[in-house]
Amino acid sequence: MGWVHGQGTTNATHDYLFTDLSPHYGINYFRLKQVDFDGASEYSKVLSIPFQGQYLTLSVYPNPVRGHWQIRLTKPLETPGQIILSDLVGRTLHQASLEVGQERWEAPQMPPGSYVLSLKATGGFISKRVTVE
Length: 133
Prior knowledge:
Blueprint lengths: L25 E5 L2 E3 L5 E3 L3 E5 L6 E4 L8 E4 L7 E7 L4 E7 L5 E3 L6 E9 L2 E9 L1
Antiparallel strand pairs: 1-4, 2-3, 5-6, 6-9, 7-8, 7-10, 10-11
């Protein structure tokens, strides 16, 4: 998910910050992995953090795409929605309906190139650029 460089060996207390830019609606689980300079590592306890975000966003995983991919929404849809996959000229290549409560969508296999993935739902329109390798 992310990486934060440490302060090295020290007796002083240091605070670190990392922001999850694509949390999922509901409970999110996190843990830290500390890696020492000699390669030894240690994991923290798992923390559960609730997210009740107001705003609907989508993430494409993985991006760039190599084979199988999907989209994830930060919260379940409250009204039916529509996914539109277009080329960069704006031609619709694939369309699918999303149901109320849906949080994920399994995307079709696409040839290499750049695409625009759009989600239309009541209250908004979200677009993401997707690269297929």
